[in-house]
Amino acid sequence: MGLTYVNVSIANPINPKRLKRKKLLAGSGALYSIIPKQILRSIRIRPYATETFTLADGSTITREVGAVFLGINGRKAPSPVIFGEKNDGALLGVIALESLGFTIDPRTGKLKPTPLFLM
Questions:
Q1: CB-CB neighbours of 87 under 10 Å
Q2: What gap in Å lies between CA 108 and CA 116, rounded to an integer?
Q3: Domain extents for the chain?
Q4: DSSP per position, 4-47
Q5: pLDDT digit of tens for each residue in the chain (119 aa)?
Q6: d(C-alpha 66, C-alpha 68), whole Å
Q7: For the structural domain made of 5-113, what CATH number should be given?
Q8: Per-residue DSSP letters for 51-105?
Q9: Contacts for 43 with CB less than 8 Å, ≥ 6 apart
Q10: Residues 8 and 92: beta-carbon distance below 8 Å
Q11: What is the pTM of this model?
């Protein structure tokens, strides 16, 4: 299989014309999306909180958190995002993928549409 990269539009929810496009690694093991801080600042996203996150090795980091509209293949949805620092990777997390109605097909490594369930 390999890594799954996705072209994503990242827009300001208040003014959707303020947007940037970025290729992000889709991470089925990560909950939150990480967008480089300079991209978020350039479209005037402001953090609403600072949170502490636990990494796979058990260490913790503190990062600002904000909200954006993400778009993939014509689908758009709001999502929380982490303001990525200089050495953080850019990542599309499961919360965003599920909000947009996508999963990663383990056989092909590509995104596939999934039903949006209301239960």
A1: 5
A2: 21
A3: 5-113
A4: -EEEEEEE-SS-TTSEEEEEEEE-TT-SSEEEEHHHHHHTT---
A5: 568 999 999 999 999 999 999 999 998 788 999 999 999 999 999 999 999 999 889 999 999 999 999 999 999 999 999 999 999 999 999 999 999 999 998 888 899 998 777 77
A6: 7
A7: 2.40.70.10
A8: EEEE-TTS-EEEEEEEEEEEEETTEEEEEEEEEE-TTPPPEE-HHHHHHHTEEE-
A9: 10, 11, 12, 18, 19, 20, 68
A10: yes
A11: 0.91
Q: Dig out the tokens for 51 from the structure.
A: 């949170």
CB proximity list for 60: less than 8 A, separation 6 or greater: 52, 53, 54
Q: How far apart are CA 39 and CA 88, in angstroms?
A: 13
Residue with tokens 């596939």: 112
CB–CB of 80/66 below 8 Å?
Answer: yes
- What are the backbone angles phi and psi of residue 66, rounded to the nearest 5°? -140, -170
Q: Which residue has the tokens 């913790």?
A: 60
